[in-house]
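ingest -> validate -> predict -> emit
validate: passed (alphabet ok, no gaps, 286 aa)
predict: started
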Amino acid sequence: MPEQDAAARPRPAATVMLLRPARSGTAAGGRVASDRSDGPMEVLLMRRVRSMGFAPGAYVFPGGGVDGRDADGGLPWTGPSPEEWARTLGTDVRTARALVCAAVRETFEETGVLLAGEPERAGEPAITLDTASEEWERDRLGLIDRSRSFTEVLSGRGLVLRSEWLRAWSRWITPRAQPRRYDTWFFAAELPPGQTSRDVGGEADLTAWTDPSLVASEWEAGRMPMLPPTVVTCAELAGCRTLEGVRKARRDIVPFEPDIREVDGQIRVVAPDGVDYPLPKPGAAP
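emit:
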C-alpha cells in the first residue's frame, strides 16, 4: 500500500524501567532504607517537558535513541556478552552492543544513575558511586553534548558497564502511520545500592518513583498522560508485584507494532493485550 511504502524507518532506541523497593523509610540523602526484594516496588517515571517534539507532557521511562558510538567494541563490559545479548534481543551483535550501551548511557544522562562498577568487583554487590560530584557532572554533560563517548567516560575511571544488571523486557515499534518512528527495546534494572536518581536530564520537568499498580487508574483519570507501551509495561510490572517477581518473569522478546484501527467510531491504538488507547498526537510515538 502507498502509505506503507512511505512509512518512516524506525530508529533503534532503548528505554529502562528503573526499579527499587517501595520506601519503608529513608536513609541519609534520600536513599532507600530497605532492600527487600519480596515486598512492593516502585518504578521511575519522568514527565517530559511540553516543549519537546516527542511525547510532550507524557510520563516515560528513561531512555532514548541509539548513538553511533554506542556500538563501540572497546566499551568495558561484564555480564552477558554482546553475542549473548544478540540472541536475547533478536539482533546482530553490533546492534545488541549498541542497545545495551544506549540503555545504560541514557539512564545515566537522564537520571544520574549509573549501571557500572569496578571490574575486580564484577561478581560482587554494587559499590556505591557518587555521580553527583562536579567531575561526574562534567562527564554526564559531555555525553549529552556528544563531546565525550561512554567508552571514554567508563574507561577513564576504570569502570565497566554491568550488563548483568539489565533484564530484557519487550520490544515495541511505532505504528507505520506515525511520522516519527522508533524500534524500542525495553529493559528492567534495579536501582544500584547507594545510588539515587536526580532531576538532571533537562528533557523532563518532573521525576517520580511510582507504584506501577497505580499507573493505569492515574492514566485513565487523565492525571498521568503516557503512550500505550508505558501503560502496558507498568501493568506488566504490577503483575509481577515484587522485584523478585520481575527477576523470575519469563519474557520473549518479539517485535510488536500496535494496530491502529477504528473502535466505536474513534481511531485507537490496540496493544498486545487487546486494550485500545487514544491515538498519540503528531510528534508523539511509542
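Confidence is low (pLDDT under 50) at residues 25-33, 281-286.
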